[in-house]
Amino acid sequence: MRLPARLLSLSAVTAASALLLTGCFSESASDDSAGGSAGGDGKRVRVAMMNPPRSGLSPLSDDAFKLSRWSTAETLVTLDADGDAEPALATKWQQNARTWTFEIRDGVTFHDGTKLTAESVVRSLTRAATASPKPRILDGVDLTVKADGDSVAVTTGTEDPLVPQRLSSPQLSILAAKAYRGKTVSPVGAGTGPFELTKVNGTSSATLDRYDDYWGGTAKSPGIDVKFVPDGTARAATLRSGEADVVEAVPVSQAALLDEDLVTEVPMPRTNTLYLNTGSGPFKDASLRAAAREAVDAESIVKGVYEGRADVAKGLLGPALPWAADLREPVQRAKSGDPNGRTITIGTFTDRAELPEVAQTLQQRLQKAGFKVKLDVREYANIESDALAGEFDAFILSRATVLDSGDPAAYLYSDFGSKGSFNISQLSDRKVDAALEKAAGTKTGDARRRAVVDAEAAVLATDAAIPMLHERVIQGDAAGVVDVEHDPRERALITADTYVK
Fold first, then answer.
1. Domain Solute-binding protein family spans what residues (predicted)?
2. Using the 8-state DSSP alphabet, how is residue 138 labeled?
């Protein structure tokens, strides 16, 4: 097995036919009409992405992370490699009990030419805070926003040490007034980043052009041409054929077929987890959840499905958060019961090419343990709502654990809090809720890390989720690509410094 030439740590940072790919990026692959290269040579960056938009690229959905990866929508703050907040559209901030005051950067314009003001920030954050459902990062947070001269005052219902980190979430991007004219939020021509989103072609493609008045300096590439290619084999083929410059989420099965110099393996704060429905069905019984846990052989999945390009999970939080392993202690769990031929349905999705194979492996293991197992495998866009509604007995999900705030407490609340918006396990447990509440209210530092690991232990004790492995996402970059990002948090990809030789 040939390993990737590069492996980045957190701090450093099925078959498809040829016809499917023909002309994939032909419309603007070498278009230099957007102007000079400003350090590049005038070529546009062609990107093949995995997941098509699910909500019309609304920043209030997970589509927000696409806007961030294309450097078109920005937030008040960003996060450094350690998860600490750094200035972006806000230059500085301070806390006074429940209120944080953010000073808004001067000289910033939106892509429609209007000026960034405190009122602009209030409008965007208020729309997010009052949305239904709220962005995950605001789960359980009562947040109000008011303008105060050139600053913005953000007040929470209870004292919240994580407000700056929360405001770094791409789902809290600041957009121009034009974005909010309808019932949905449209980011087209409404961001502040170095690239302006100029066209969205449904779920097939998107076009971005350089924004020459960007406050942070002119981008080196004249634009970005995005194609959404859910099929992993087809996506990898765009790199082999030279039709894409940057390819995200290359399937493990395809990595060995690519030139190793074009492949980067990025250890991610992402856990492949088997969520068990604690609200209804067979897994409402804790002893059957324990039986499922004992049937899972994560090591064989890592070796057989991921070809060793993943880490066996010891908990929900993986190697990208090394302090978790140092603090983790053994967890007391329920004893295993007899499945006695109970029928269960496991759901998962095709967008991540390895997951259907993981499902088949689990099916075999669970059937051997005494369950009868049915599989339901679809594209993510067609299965998410059923998963959240508790329609499956179990669901296999590749889940980012620090995606939103850089802090895993938000992920734990969202996925396992009784009022969490992403509670696939339908978990409602007083001990878990108490541990999550404690973690959320603890100030940043060693004490918060301890509280987070205690909350993880409370979740694991329920067997509502069986962590199997921590992924290393594989990214493909053509030989001529310069300064593309390899971001473990999946927030950055094409930046103002990225260009194609």
1. 86-421
2. G
